[in-house]
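Human: I'm a chemist; would you kindly supply sequence and structure tokens for a protein?

Assistant:
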Amino acid sequence: MNKYEHIRGVVLDWAGTTIDHGSRAPAIVFQEVFRGRGVEVTVAQAREPMGMAKLEHIAAIAAIPEVSEAWSKKYGRPCQVSDVEGMYADFLPLQLQILDQYCDMIEGVANAVDLLRERGLKIGSSTGYTRKLMEVVTEAAARQGYSPDCVLCAEDAPRGRPAPYLLYKAATLLDIYPMSSIVKVDDTAVGIQAGRNAGCWTVGVTRTGNCVGLSSEEIDGLSEVEVAAKCADAEAVLRNAGAHAIVESVADLPAVIDEFESKLAANLRPS
């Protein structure tokens, strides 16, 4: 059944959006690779560039003023390209070592995706993970009932997010045009920016994502007031990045798709 005339596809992020509630796996390893060089970074610093390709992410952490100062104090010079490349080489096996522990589907995602497919939408995905890392993730997700129509990784484009190239490639693979027929769903600022740069509708994910950064069990241990405050902070980040709409979880996505469909029917485009 094709419910939608104008919206034709959705491109979903992975960690923090569809799997790994709180996007914890990459944050842990980013901290570890800097610790291995004798430089401590906070979890907030490790999360700040989340959504970028991992090599670019490490460079962005190193460029944070406090981290840059700590590096210079440790080594007597700024962090260099060779240092970043060395940490990236460390990152990949460390991430691979723990990744299968962080591949649980976020509650409600698989059902929401099934509903959107029943309504005639194609489902794409993009990630800052490499193809080798995604082999672990996609196998785990498939066992839990989630297999998107395409999976685009960091090395599939000349530049990662916030550049729009992964979304252009997704549109090609899914055979969708114009770009305003696609909804990009992401829990990071750079993911939202990529969607805006590509001309897509964008939906920011708060409760399950990187900006809140907590597992479902950790969320359950907070009061409703505390959760609401964290989600509000996450919404502010994602709105500032340009999100057209906000959901706490992908489970809430179908209603937002209906809103975008109505806007396109009224000749309103993403802006």
Summary: The mean pLDDT is 96. DSSP finds twelve helices and six strands in the chain.
